[in-house]
Amino acid sequence: MAITVEEKPDSREGTLGDTAEITLRYLIRGTADDGQARAALADNTPLLYAGLVRKTLTTTPVFVDIGKPDTSVWDGVVRYGRWRRQPDTGESVFEFDTTGGTQHVTQSLQTVGVYAAPGRVATDFQGAVGVTDSGVEGVDITVPVYRWSERHFLDEEMVTEAYKDNLFWLTGRLNSHQFRGRETGEVLFMGSRGARRSDEDWEVSFHFAASPNRRGLQVGSVVGIDKGGWEYLWVQYEKVEDSGSERVATRPRAVYVERVYEHDDFLKMGIGT
Question: I want to staple 186 with a disulfide (CB 3.0 to 4.6 A). Which of 98, 180, 182, 195 is the partner?
Answer without folding.
Answer: 182
